[in-house]
Specification:
The complex is a heterodimer of chains A (about 425) and B (about 300).
Chain A: H1 2-24, H2 28-34, E1 38-46, H3 53-72, E2 79-87, H4 92-104, E3 108-112, H5 117-130, E4 133-136, H6 143-146, E5 162-164, H7 169-183, E6 188-193, H8 197-213, E7 216-222, H9 231-240, E8 244-248, H10 251-263, E9 270-272, H11 279-285, E10 293-297, H12 305-317, H13 327-347, H14 356-366, E11 371-373, E12 376-378, E13 390-399, E14 402-412
Parallel strand pairs in A: 1-2, 1-3, 3-4, 4-5, 6-7, 6-8, 8-9, 9-10
Antiparallel strand pairs in A: 10-13, 11-12, 13-14
Helix pairs in contact in A: 3-13, 4-5, 7-8, 9-10, 10-11, 13-14
Chain B: H1 4-32, H2 39-56, H3 63-90, H4 99-119, E1 127-128, E2 137-138, E3 143-144, H5 148-168, H6 170-180, H7 182-187, H8 192-218, E4 220-221, H9 225-240, H10 245-265, H11 281-295
Antiparallel strand pairs in B: 1-4, 2-3
Helix pairs in contact in B: 1-5, 1-8, 1-9, 1-10, 2-3, 2-4, 2-8, 2-9, 3-8, 5-6, 5-8, 6-8, 9-10, 10-11
The chains are: A alpha/beta (about 425), B mainly alpha (about 300).
């Protein structure tokens, strides 16, 4: 009996696997025979499940919108775009697996994503080896484009296939430092980070600029991003008599941390980067989110004319989740890839070059891409960073009867150096 | 050092939470020598059970009124899953090689996480849990959240009730007998299967209470919360002497205190400036565990581990 059921099980699994792989392999014959349309697949990698999925799904939906728009407008003649989305569950190892998978799919000509800087780090080399262009809408760690020694004025671009539409922590942290010191006139900060590439990097750039301005760091702490109990840290913050807290981390840890600090009796705002700029942050910290500040890259979408079309389009598609903090950047990242494909197709008499050459040429074309995107003028400098250095700060306030992030300041960061 | 009372209170509350969960590990281990790694998930399911009950009540129901129903529902969910796990995952393997149920427990833990992740509405990210509002309760040197009162009352009440149950009732004594020698207990006419189910059920009920305390304290539940909490609770059970119910609570409190003390004060020790703070608290907690086990291999209150482990 046992053997037979095992046999049935094995057969079932094998049949299932075969069916799946049959679905996966495309019938190439159809397309090359027709000669009218080539399919170009744009890969997408983001955390689509788990704590950070609010941000990840916003990225996915926005990229989907860009692809649909391009197909509808016949943006590139003879090319039909498709989006294939992979979930990295915010883990570097999964991101790398996904990258390998995307490289293996010969139809993939560009990749949008990921969300997390450490995931980005793990993917870069895989894409560089395959000459596959990657545009991240959300990675903000400076080392990704400027090399490990970016702070010592020895900037060197590690991977020529890596681009991003978001600005870096090198200006995001200092931008918040200037605002808190000069406009809020708060001089004492307690800096907390989560030891991850993004969080620690951001907290570092903030603290350095804040000290340069004359502010005082009255304490530093590091937390484990999976923890929920921060009561001991909160008590320390209260005892340190800080004016505000700078939290270099993502909202799953940042929101309970901010709430617990206020509960511990320190009625001071928590300030953080773009990974705290999510409606989920307010939802998790509840009333204790009031007064907290998050910086984010770019101008508030609501204020940009170029963004209005994106927002109405997003609404029309009826996506279940909001576009969240990175939606606009994801749209622009996807659009940049579409434009690069367009440039290559136009250069090659209306056709994509054969084989690996296509990827190589698209990567080269990306360097010179320029267009008016959702988040403003999109273009890339010699490191692959965006030329748009706009930043904004949002404070959690009551608006339209509920707590939400309300823009308080927006501009380009020049000062400090 | 003026925040010492507050840090002690933080540690005590965290420790009581660990202790409540640790009861489940310790009872099951005491009776069947199984480390039930799915216990963290039974804890997590209690949290989702309580949340379901709260959402099911009409909006605007006060949390204090809803709490009894939430407790009931959480306990029912956890106990069902706990007993179900015993019946379908562990009992068929009883008497088999020792590692088989252990691996099953790990597999079950992953399966339960994924089940909640996939089927509980919107559980792919953290769900908010209702909290008591209002100012903190101030005791002068320290203060606590209103929601923590629940934990502060529930933990000792549960412990005393369990202690009385084990020492005074017939079933409790049968449980002790089974834990000491299952074969002889069976010869004496004790239905050991029933006792084992009871151990799983009590452990699950305590985990459900802990889950509500966890939700009230941190304001959210998520499908992953059982993993870290379970690991810590297991550590607490070992620290206190696995198999001993009072040891589980003591171990939990010691672990909680160790974590908050390490976060707050290690960095003030000369030469340890860079080994303090929240980043190192787990390291120090485990250093403590190792020290305790070196000096008292059976744990703080452990009984003879001797023959069967």
């Amino acid at each position: 009996m046992r053997h037979r059921s095992l046999l049935i099980l094995t057969t079932g699994v094998t049949v299932g696997a075969l069916t799946l792989s049959a679905c996966g392999s495309r019938d190439e014959g159809d397309k090359s025979g027709g000669d009218e349309t080539t399919t170009v697949t744009i890969g997408l990698d983001a955390p689509l499940t788990g704590d950070l999925s609010a941000l990840g799904l916003g990225i996915k939906n926005s990229a989907d919108l860009a692809v649909k728009t391009a197909n509808k407008n016949k943006e590139v003649k003879g090319v039909k775009f498709e989006l294939t989305s992979l979930d990295d569950v915010a883990q570097a190892s999964q991101g790398q697996t996904n990258a390998t998978k995307l490289v293996g799919n010969k139809e993939v000509m560009g990749v949008v994503g990921p969300l997390n800087s450490d995931v980005g780090q793990s993917m870069q080399k895989v894409f560089a080896d395959a000459n596959l262009v990657q545009v991240s809408p959300a990675n903000t760690n400076p080392a990704l484009t400027q090399g490990e020694k970016w702070q010592d004025d020895q900037k060197a671009r590690p991977f020529k296939t890596y681009f991003r539409t978001s600005t870096t922590d090198a200006i995001q942290g200092p931008y918040a430092a200037h605002y808190m010191f000069k406009e809020k006139k708060l001089k004492k900060v307690f800096v907390i980070d989560d030891k991850k590439t993004y969080g620690a990097g951001l907290a570092g750039t903030f603290a350095e600029e804040f000290k340069k301005l004359g502010g005082k760091v009255v304490g530093t702490e590091h937390i484990n991003p999976e923890d929920k109990d921060f009561s001991a840290v909160a008590t320390k913050v209260k005892a340190a008599n800080a004016d505000f807290v700078y939290a270099g981390m993502e909202y799953p840890a940042g929101a309970p941390l901010a709430a617990q600090i206020k509960k511990a009796g320190a009625k001071i705002p928590t300030v953080g980067g773009d990974a705290l700029f999510s409606p989920e942050y307010v939802k998790l910290a509840k009333a204790n989110a009031a007064g907290d500040i998050a910086s984010s890259v770019g101008a508030p979408l609501e204020t940009l004319d170029t963004a209005k079309k994106f927002m109405s389009g997003y609404k029309a598609e009826g996506y279940k989740e909001g576009y969240d903090a990175y939606g606009g950047y994801a749209y622009d990242s996807t659009w940049a890839i579409i434009q690069a494909v367009k440039a290559v197709v136009e250069k090659n008499d209306g056709k994509l070059p054969e084989g690996d050459d296509a990827r190589k040429q698209i990567t080269e074309a990306m360097q010179d891409i320029k267009f008016s995107g959702v988040t403003g003028e999109v273009g890339f400098d010699e490191f692959g960073d965006t030329t748009n250095k706009q930043l904004s700060l949002y404070e959690v306030k009551k608006k339209d009867g509920k707590l939400q992030h309300v823009p308080v300041k927006s501009g380009e960061f020049e000062g400090g150096q | 050092m003026n925040d010492l009372p507050q840090q002690l209170a933080n540690g005590l509350l965290l420790g009581a939470l660990y202790g409540l969960i640790a009861i489940g590990y310790t009872m099951v281990y005491g009776i069947v020598q199984l480390i039930n790694f799915a216990h963290g998930e039974i804890f997590m399911i209690g949290g989702f059970g309580a949340l379901t009950a709260f959402l099911w009540l009409p909006e605007g129901t006060s949390l204090a009124l809803a709490l009894p129903l939430m407790i009931l529902f959480a306990v029912v969910c956890s106990v069902l899953v706990g007993v179900g796990a015993e019946r379908f995952a562990y009992r068929p393997l009883r008497g088999g090689p020792r590692l088989a149920p252990l691996i099953t427990a790990i597999g079950l833990s992953i399966a339960l996480q994924q089940a909640i992740w996939a089927w509980y509405p919107d559980a792919t990210k953290s769900r908010t849990f209702p909290e008591f509002t209002g100012p903190r309760l101030d005791f002068g040197a320290f203060s606590i959240e209103r929601g923590d009162l629940f934990l502060l009352i529930a933990a000792p009440v549960c412990m005393i009730a369990l202690g009385l149950f084990v020492s005074k009732t017939r079933s409790g004594r049968a449980m002790q007998a089974t834990s000491q020698d299952p074969d002889t207990a069976k010869l004496m006419g004790i239905n050991t299967d029933r006792i084992i189910v009871m151990a799983f059920a009590i452990g699950a009920a305590f985990a459900a209470i802990a889950a509500i305390a966890h939700g009230l304290r941190y304001g959210e539940v998520n499908f992953k919360m059982g993993f870290i909490a379970g690991l810590k609770a297991f550590t607490a059970a070992v620290l206190g002497g696995i198999g001993n119910i009072y040891g589980a609570m003591i171990g939990g409190v010691v672990l909680g205190l160790a974590e908050s003390m390490a976060t707050a004060y290690i960095e003030n020790v000369p030469g340890f400036a860079s080994f303090g703070g929240g980043a190192w608290k787990d390291v120090w907690a485990f250093v403590l565990l190792i020290l305790v086990l070196l000096l008292r291999p059976q744990g703080l209150l452990g009984e003879r581990v001797a023959d069967r482990a």
